[in-house]
Structures are given as structure tokens and as C-alpha cells.
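Appendix C. Worked example: M18 family aminopeptidase
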Amino acid sequence: MTTPDSESTTSPTESTSPAEPTGPAGTVVTDSPGPAASTAALAGPLHDEEAYTDSLIGFVTASPSSYHAAAETARRLEAAGFRQMREAEAWEGAPARGYVIRDGAIIAWILPEALAADAGWRIVGAHTDSPALKLKPRAAVVREGIQALGVEVYGGPLLNSFLDRELGLAGRLVTRDGAAHLVRTGPVARVAQVAPHLDRSVNDSLHLDRQAHLMPLWSLPAPGAGPEALRQWARPDAPERHLCRLAGIDPDDLALHDVVTYPTQAPARFGARGEMLASSRLDNLSSVHAALRALEELAAPGAPAPAGPLLMVANDHEEVGSQTRSGAGGPFLESILERLSRALGVEVYGGPLLNSFLDRELGLAGRLVTRDGAAHLVRTGPVA
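Step 2, the predicted output written as C-alpha cells:
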């Protein structure tokens, strides 16, 4: 199948699933199914290995960043009858099947009709982020007539795994009005390894400097470009402007971005009988997908009602320590458990204290403090 080389979606309140892609006419050819195929694969039972693998391939393909993973999870949950709840709103109870998105994290649940006296939460956890190269702000640099991207290593990857692979850019753009735009490109960059005759010791000891050796090449000036065109091409914010064009937004309206590289090579079966699967981002999208498939199966018509409340949490930022508002060390899970427990008639802290906690959560749900990197200002503002 063929897919356009870029896509973007917009939502003023939360991440959403990708809409019909728009952008340049170039295409990237892939043998893997997209989101529609991943949903179609659910026709097979949970123990059907081929159907499950097709579903996993579709999920990984649709999830080049943590934001896309949360959006794709939400899309499939909606198809299974789950309803979205928003943290910035007061809840009058909670749906029996629901979910909440916070940045690149998502929590989903299934609640019983009645809560038994000895019932307890059954929770499965995973994370949506994977090791990557994260795009720095205004990071384009020109060296020897080639424009490269300034990036930082995100998480704990094998650094050599970035070499000589076609890379795309994917993530979230946030405009000054607080609207979030998901964006992804096709293959636009490559971390090129030096030729062996220029480094005779490369097969004895490969050392990669994170700042000097992992800058993806991504642009050449147009043939015959005049002085003004060259000046525009060499702008430090060229990557942001390119992504804004794909997302259909004015670059002057961009407030911040969280964009990573991802290998554009499609997942593929291999082995003598095709019994193995090779794919990037299986850490930890394979676990997110497994939890999602379990919820889809439990929400299917005729599935037995749960004896107690069930919950899936897929946090972001596990690769960098989890101590963020959407990470496992942050307040996301606690906040949603408090709300759901209250909806089930369980007062964990007791009236006034619990009400104060919920008031605080409503006040913070639309705020974000972010530091772009060294020598960049701390900024606060509304986000989706």
C-alpha cells in the first residue's frame, strides 16, 4: 500500500487519532497495514497469532511517537465503545467504559455494574515512549553545504541503531492558542556513518559522540537558489517551519514542539516460516498493544462482565525517569483513580480533602511547564 509522506491532526483539547494525511505528493511504500487494517485484524480471536501480529504491526505503524500511540489507542477504544473523559471538566460519575488522555499518556478502564465489598483494582501498566533522537528548538545547522538537525538522545538506546537508516519526524506541535497538532513525515533524515577508509579503526572500536556524530542530514539547497532563497533555507528554525507547513499552521503561531525521529522502515515478518517479527518501538508498544487488545476483547459483545474494576495505564517518559506530569512517577494515575473511586462511591480521603484534591487537579489539567533545553527559558501556558 502507499501512504502520503506526512500527516497532521489538530485538537484544542486533546490528542486525537490521525486524520487523512495532507502534504507534499511524495509517497513512501510500506507492506504493513495502517490503522484501518489493525482494526480489521480484530475479527480474529485473541489467540489467533496471525491476527494478533497484524494488529500489533498496524498499531506500531500508527504510533511513531508517544502522542500518536495515545491517539491510536484512543481511536481503537472509541471503536470498541469507550467514551473519552476530560480532566479539565468536573465529572458527574464516570462511564463504565472510558478513557483519559494526558499528553502522550492514556488511561482506560472498565467498571462493574456493582462494586463487591472485597473488590480491588486490577491494573496493567506500560509506556508509550521509545528511545529516539529528539529535535531541539531552532536546531538546523549548515555544514559544508548540507543542513543537519540538532538533536538530543532521548532514553537509553543503542546509539549505533540510528546509523544509516531513513528517519522520519513525528510528534506534537502546540500553537499559542493551546491547540495540539499531531504531525509525522515520511523519510526525511539520515544519520550517515563515515566511510571505512576514513576511519580504519571503525571495525575495532566504534565510538559515537552524542553531539557530534548523531546529527541527521536532512536538506540540500535547491539548485540555482539565489541569496534570499539560501538565507531562508539556512534558517535555524527550518525544521519547525517545515513541520508547520505539513500541519497547516502558521509558523509564527508555534509555541512549542515535542518531536522525535523514528525509523520509517515498516515492521516485517522474517524467518524460514515468517515466524519472527522485526520492528522498532516494540519497547514498549508491544505491551501497550497487549493491554489494549485485552480491553477490546473484554468490551466485545457477549464478553463476561468484570468482577471488579479494570484499568490500563500507558504512561509517557519512562525512558527518561518517569518524573513528569504524564509519567509513572507523576500524579496522572492517582488523579484518575481518585475520580473513578469517587464515581464508584468510595471516598478514599474523605469529603473536604478529596474535594480539594479534585479542585487542584481541575486547575492544573490545562497547564504545562516546559524547559526546551540548555540556555532556553522556562515557559508556562495552556496545552491540550
